[in-house]
Amino acid sequence: MTVIDLRSDTVTRPTPAMREAMAHAEVGDDVYGEDPAVNRLQERVAALLGKAAALYVPSGSMANQIALAIHTRPGDDVLVGEGAHNFLYESGAAGAIAGVQMTIVGQGGLFDAADVEAGYKVDNHHYAPTRLCCLEDTHNRGGGKVWPQAQRDAVVAAARARDLQLHLDGARLWNAAVFHAAAAGRSLAGTAAEALSPELRALAAPFDTVSVCFSKGLGAPVGSCLTGSRELMDRAHRMRKMLGGGMRQAGILAAAALHALDHHAARLGDDHASARALAEGLARLPGVRVDGAPETNIVIADLTGPADAFVAGARERGVLLNAIGPRRIRLVTHLDVSRAACDDALGRLAGLPA
Ligand SMILES: Cc1ncc(COP(=O)(O)O)c(C=O)c1O
User: Fold this and answer.
1) Is residue 136 in contact with ligand 1, taking CB distance under 6 Å?
2) pTM here?
3) Is 85 touching ligand 1 by the criterion CB < 6 Å?
């Protein structure tokens, strides 16, 4: 029985063509700034997002933590949405490395201008000064949710009115861009990531820093970029060194990301369609509730019974998924699961006590 792994879009393995691109990567010592593939990737990503500069880092977590460190000083306060990756899933790094406290605003991951106002600490020595507001698009815990533009703009305006810096965790910004392109009726078939540049630039424009990952929907094995002004990226570069994130012949990895930008961005719409099919099929199972159609590649479902038992039962049937709450499961579509595999998974899950 083949295993169908729906735990995360991080589980993909490099395709033969990607491995080929990695094998032929032109490399140098990136700590000296001499790796041609890394330099090409950084320039390409900065251009794609309309930022002055980009810095290649080993992970999305490091990109987020560097952003926190360069925007704040220890003792500052940072506004984040509920379930934000940089709050919930980065091992407490925000407190340990940047030394900041985080204030959760809103519910479900997204928030609005009133939440920014409610979370903002007025200038008073009792409070940690609020310096930074972080958004996540798409929102992982929020079920791959895309920020509606008007809501995002209102939050940005409220944050700027309070002189806050803005960071966007765009680990899955590619998915958000594909969502917006599809909503605008644009066909992306056969295009490289540059076809998404109008959407990516619009999404990135309001933020001082934006992180993007290559190791999620794009299917590369490693790596993220942090983007922003040259001055901020110079500071980020120093912070990357402090964290031990300076890599040497990293072009082997950058080549995988470059290949992914050429071949795996436009196809993300297929993952979104598979996620909708999964959500529809799950919603038909007794005891399973799905709140509306997923916007991108993440499906969250609520069960009547315990999630752990459902996940264990699914594993016995060769379907891997994650419990993200006592009665909540998460399934993620990606490059290594076809639509047919998703249909197969639904067949295997039928009849499992939920
Ligand atoms: C929204 C978001 N941000 C950041 C990250 C961190 O990425 P990494 O696993 O590369 O550290 C993830 C990982 O899943 C994520 O979902």
Assistant:
1) yes
2) 0.98
3) yes
